[in-house]
Design brief:
Helices cover 26% and strands 30% of the residues. It is α/β, with parallel strands linked by helices. The strands form 5 sheets. Strands 3, 7, 8, 11, 12, 19 and 20 form a 7-stranded mixed β-sheet that branches. The protein has a 6-stranded parallel β-sheet with strand order 15-14-13-16-17-18, with helices on both faces. A 3-stranded antiparallel β-sheet has the order 2-1-6, with helices on one face.
Amino acid sequence: MTTPEPVPAQDVAVVVHGVRDLRVEQRPVPAPAPDEAVVRIAYGGICGSDLHYWTHGAAGESVLRAPMVLGHEVVGTVVTAAADGSGPPAGTEVAVHPAGTTDAAAAFPPGRPNLSPAGTYLGSAARSPHTEGAFARHAVLRAGMLRPLPGGLSLRTAAVAEPAAVAWHAVRRAGDVAGKKVLVIGCGPIGLLVVAVLRRAGAAEIVVTDVHEHPLTVARELGATDTVAAADADAVAAVAADVVFESSGSPRGLASAVRGAARGGTVVMVGLLPSGEQPALISLAITRELDLRGSFRFTDELDDVLAALADGSLQADAVVTHVLGVDDTLAAFELALDATASSKVLLEF
């Protein structure tokens, strides 16, 4: 019988206190509820929302009102299983599905819990009190969030599973992309993972565009067949793609997506634009009969991603450009903010 691993009363966590106020500090490890497990975190990917809380004190409509532990892209090992037996046993390596709900009666379309108005997400300031994240050496998480890793899949490779699930969901929203010409606007980590998923899904051509050369180089490694400079509006429009993924989260990127779509094509809006009214080429979308589709987070795609990473059909390692220890958290965030030098940056706990 394996001796249980002791869980400290306090441990290191990455906490944002305000704009440009990020601290690595000791925080109490909460006592788990019967349906919660304690997970020793191995890796955490720095997401755009983490960066926004740090640089702007908000991510979209979610405004930071109190110090909050960041992080939702995490993998680790269960050290204390849920007491009610609802989750994996101690010693199991897991990925984490960061979504939850505060009201089981909240209305949302069947099979689409990501659209629930009562949805919660790890490391989110959308509600008060905030939903604490999992950038900590030991995180207490609902057992239902834990997904055991398939045999042979390492924690390091699985560290991109959560953002890859966002990309997988976006590609699923587009429908069948096999044999089609696809344009990806913006090659941040999500855009790059869209490229990787498109390659697996059998897209015939994958054209990508970005304002920096570094992400375009990574995109080629992940399966892009051609690149276009974002500033060259004529070249973007000439792509005439069957499907376009807008991953930049900017009004200019959305305009490029509309211009770069073929008549009768589909535009999947993955990047989250700033809150409030935004300019858009709606007239052009109407006269070309474009199908504009939103894509928000994901549902059960995390399980598909883990299986595809395990069997090698989804090749996504190139998206991770840097791994830094938690003691170098501030340097890691600065690096993640620099799209000319990095793609996905992982914290190692």
